[in-house]
Amino acid sequence: MEKTPILNELLSFEDEKYTKFFMPSHLQLTYKDDFSATQNKVFEFMKSFEDKIFSFDVTEVNNFDNLSNPSGIIKQSQEIVAESFNSKDAFFLVNGSTVGILSMICAVTKFNDKIIIQKNSHKSVHNACKVNKLNIVYIESEKNNNFDVDGALKISQFENLLKEHQDAKAVVITSSNYYGQDLDVKKLSEIAHKHSMYLLVDCAHCANYNYSKKFPHFPINYADIVVTSFHKTLPCINQTAVLFTNKNLSDCVHEKLREQINIFQTTSPSYILLSNIEVTNYLLKKYGEILYSELFENIKRFKKKIFKLSQSYNSFKILANDDFSRLVISFRDVNVNTAYNYLKNKKILAEMTNEKSIVFICNIFHTRSDFDNLFFALKSLIINKKIRNDINTYTNNNSCGNSINKDVIQYVEQNLGNKSNYNIYLYPPGTPFLIKGDILTDTILKQLKKIDIEGNVEIIF
């Protein structure tokens, strides 16, 4: 069709028939012959929901309630989800987790307050600090160089930082992160509360924790306010998210939260997204333990096969993380960009890459055959010496025209030796590559150019 570039690309993507390991975790509701009986039940329910999407796109008429000040069916649904997550409140978000991050930070701080955040927080955390002109203290993390991910946060380091900045109003952490790594939220909460600070958690990547004992505890049991995204790990449409409050949070903060959410969130309720949150919670409360047990066994089997392969070829490592459904694989003898594009050529599409690893998001609609496809593709990559020795065999032809990346690189080239006037982010995962005030160096420029050539992430201000 002419003049419909987005639609054309979506139709083209649908025709590719990828094995998908990326969000949103409904996987475009693609049927698979080897679905289990429980997967089939959930799939059929979601398909019936999909068929009604345009019928569900209504406005605030009849008894449809008001998202900004719910008193009817939206209020009832939020109370059901809050009970499901053992929280005081559940605020449904239809503009994604970003709305919740902005709202919770602005609800507990005033202009020019001090706040403590992880330096590698999502860009929405940094933007919330800009909105309230907050004085930021950064929690630094060491790197796990084998995977190019952050190492564990030291409790002693955290406590010393809070002692040094006792006038801070809140602490913001990320748990679980893009790589399935958790922090000790319980212990960090105890320390934050000892210093009269709110603990706020970006847990966009672990809504699935609520639905199976195979996962760690969901962070709302310990933190004051958390925000989670339903579409990242659950079968939900993009932009579905929920903000949860701890049962001990004061009514005063509750009202400030509502005020801030109503400032940042659209007044259009999108009953498609609201009902999708509700349906997903219903289905996973009913079938979650079975579905995640099945997924756990499939991933366990996959990891055993990978371990045997890596013993023979010493080429793979899988990150030991907390979320079993998040596979992070690093490569010893293969360039990560080559590996990503080789898999793509084999019709397997991962979520993202960094300099050392590829991230695969696994969910309730993945089957044994999906993991078999991934295993055999990785095996062929490793044993094929021609591919291993030629890092240019598979290239991403889309990177050349990336004007976003070019604009950022041009800015760095023109300002070498000066402090950056911007935060520069890599997306995904949406965390800072460098922070405003960092010196722009030749090393940074070379890294950005390398990222641009590989083309698997965007570089954005």
Integer average pLDDT: 93
Strand order of the largest sheet: 2-10-9-8-7-3-4
Largest sheet: 7 strands, mixed
User: In total, how many beta strands?
Assistant: 18
Indicate the percent of residues in helices. 40-55%
What report would you give on this structure?
By secondary structure, this protein is of the alpha/beta class. Helices cover 44% and strands 16% of the residues. It has 16 helices and 18 strands. It has helices at residues 5-16, 37-51, 53-56, 73-84, 97-108, 123-131, 155-164, 185-194, 230-233, 251-264, 271-313, 336-345, 368-383, 385-389, 403-414, 442-454, and strands spanning 19-21, 89-93, 114-118, 135-139, 143-144, 149-150, 170-174, 198-202, 225-229, 241-245, 316-318, 326-331, 348-350, 352-353, 357-361, 424-427, 431-434, 458-460. It has a seven-stranded mixed beta sheet with strand order 2-10-9-8-7-3-4, sandwiched between helices. The protein has a four-stranded antiparallel beta sheet with strand order 11-12-15-14, with helices on one face. Strands 17-16-18 form a three-stranded antiparallel beta sheet. Strand 3 (114-118), helix 6 (123-131) and strand 4 form a beta-alpha-beta unit. Helix 11 (271-313) packs across helix 13 (368-383). The chain is globular.
